[in-house]
Each structure stands twice: as C-alpha cells, then as structure tokens.
Amino acid sequence: MEVLVKKLREMFPTLLRYKETERIVETFRRVIQNKGSSILEVGCGYGVNLQALKKAGFSNLIGVDINKHIVDSVKSLGLECIHAEDFDKSKQYDAILMSHIIEHFMPDDLLPFMDSYLDALKPSGHLVIVTPLMWHGFYYDFDHVKSYSPRGLLYVFGINNEQVQYYSRNKLIMEGLPYIGKTPYQIAWYKSFLLRSKNIFERAFQFVLNVLFFVSKGYIGQANWWMGVFKKIS
Fold this sequence. Notes:
Blueprint: H1 2-31, E1 38-42, H2 48-55, E2 60-65, H3 68-75, E3 81-83, E4 93-99, H4 107-118, E5 121-132, H5 150-157, E6 172-183, H6 200-215, E7 222-232
Helix pairs in contact: 1-2, 1-6
C-alpha cells in the first residue's frame, strides 16, 4: 500500500502540469486564429508549453529564458529559444505567454520586466498569463515572492488610471479569465506542508483526497492558480 501511495503521489504533479498545459493550448486555439502567428513564451523553462503548442499546429514559436542551460536544452528539442540577454526588443509578436513568471517578482521589479516584453507585443496582440493564487502551498517554491490578481494587474496595466503609485507605458484590457485551476485539498496538519510525512495514515488520508480530486475532475479541490487573457491596446 505504501509503495502504491508513493508512486501515485509522484504522478500527481505531472498530471496537474499536463492539464495546465492542455488548457494553455486550448486558450491559444481560441485566441489565435492563424497558426502561423508569432508566439513568444517568456520564461519558457524546458519547453513543455512550446512543445504542446507546436504539436497543436502553431509554427512560429520562440522561447526566452534566463538560464543558459535551459536554453540549450530547449534548442536540442528542435525549438527556437534565446537567452534573455539576447532578446531583440525591436521584433514584434502576435502573442506572449507568461506562465508562472510574475509571482517571482516584487511590484517594483515586475513593472519594468513586463513592460520590456509588452513593448514587443503588437497592438491588439494578446498576453496570456498563468499564475498561482495565494494558497497554502504558494511558498513551496523557494523564490515565489508575491501573488497577483487580474484586478491588481489592471490597476497598473489597465486604462482607468487607478490611484496607484505607477502606471505601465503599455495598456491592456482583459478579455477573459478562461480557467481557475485547482489542486487536491491538503489536510492542514499534513506534515508535507513542511516536510514529507513518514506517517502512513496521514499519507493514506492525503491519497484519498487526491483520488477524490481526480475522480471528481477537480470539483473536490482547492483553487490555486488562474489564467487570464489580455489584449494590448496601446
């Protein structure tokens, strides 16, 4: 039983990641009519989303990442990828994907970071953002620093001149919030919140919650990320 729990437990993150990538592809299918449109993924990691988009028929894809080892790895997959230092800001793109990127920045750093890439987004081009909510597992990732909401981003990148400290030079409107992602409920006293539990009963209970999540197709679970579609208007 313990071996089964361990194996299935290890599978869950992969299954969740696959589902998220699948939804990213579905969103681009709805937003981008021309499969030859240029799509830039900022912080592409090991190219999981780029591979899925390519498989879906999108042909004009490029990734950018700050890790040179990752850039080389993505290139080895036959995908175009460049280091952040080599990004050509004069080139224009039809769409930009930022998946699990913005939560790694504090506001003072996020504004210039996003602006530097939004400058390369064509007018009427689309920005797709995927980012976690502030759930109890938010800080599992060592360099997560802040959770952002769609409304909060529009205060800075929107058109209404909200009473905030600064505004973006790029203006966005929100076209939709196609997905609110979920994960299984996690028991509050489950030791993996800090360290992986060695207690078989705790792990078995958590396993049941995981199974309920997948059997209910995510209905019995907790929201932990959102996906938003924005359009650049200026």
